[in-house]
Amino acid sequence: MQVHQTAIEGLIELTPRIFEDERGHFFESYNKPLFISLGLPMEFVQDNQSFSVKGVLRGLHMQNSPFAQGKLVRVITGQVLDIAVDLRPDSPTFGQYETFLLDAKLGNMAYIPEGFAHGFVALEDSVFSYKCTNVYNKASESGIIWNDPDLNINWGINDPIVSEKDQELKTLREVMSQAVV
Ligand SMILES: Cc1cn([C@H]2C[C@H](O)[C@@H](COP(=O)(O)OP(=O)(O)O[C@H]3O[C@@H](C)C(=O)[C@@H](O)[C@H]3O)O2)c(=O)[nH]c1=O
């Protein structure tokens, strides 16, 4: 497994070794001892899978404490542009984001720690799969609008398909001003 630490502390890309033979291929998609050796959380309690047609954008999502989630994300078929925004209040990279081109053919994954808003856009019809360190809790759901003018994320696509719920998300500025009041 190749491990790439991004410019944002704790945000990591993992690329597995793929073994190919006449039957097809094999790779390890999760290895607990490796996570322990990297100092990453290794206890995942929920696995999720979604399918998105090309052009769908999901995000930017997070859950608030005490239901904050770390996520190990990857694509099973297709390709997505995955985005993680650092919203950890004490982080020197607060408000910065990282982009991952997740591709089923590479099997590459991103580990997104607690305290990040996360989203992706499907560049092809894609099955997205992820492990979470905490369970789903509707009341703890939070998020930031995908086209937040301050974050100014380059999604690489015009007019994505966005759910009504996600279209109603607030900007980071609005969320932060509400938190202060
Ligand atoms: C996320 C989630 C949703 N649901 C339900 C709620 C809803 O009726 C339906 C669809 O939910 P959503 O529209 O929120 O699904 P989706 O937009 O795919 O939400 C996901 O987006 C990506 C970007 C993330 O980072 C994830 O953590 C998660 O928030 O599934 C669960 O039952 N359990 C879950 O863990």
UniProtKB/TrEMBL annotation:
Its EC number is 5.1.3.13. Pathway: Carbohydrate biosynthesis; dTDP-L-rhamnose biosynthesis. One of its GO terms (cellular component) is cytosol. It catalyses: dTDP-4-dehydro-6-deoxy-alpha-D-glucose = dTDP-4-dehydro-beta-L-rhamnose. The active site is at H61 (proton acceptor), Y130 (proton donor). Keywords: Isomerase. It comes from the Bacteria. The record marks Y136 as: Participates in a stacking interaction with the thymidine ring of dTDP-4-oxo-6-deoxyglucose. InterPro entries: RmlC-like, RmlC-like_jellyroll, RmlC_Cupin_sf. Catalyzes the epimerization of the C3' and C5'positions of dTDP-6-deoxy-D-xylo-4-hexulose, forming dTDP-6-deoxy-L-lyxo-4-hexulose. NCBIfam families: rmlC. Homodimer. This is dTDP-4-dehydrorhamnose 3,5-epimerase. It comes from Spirosoma telluris. The gene is rfbC.
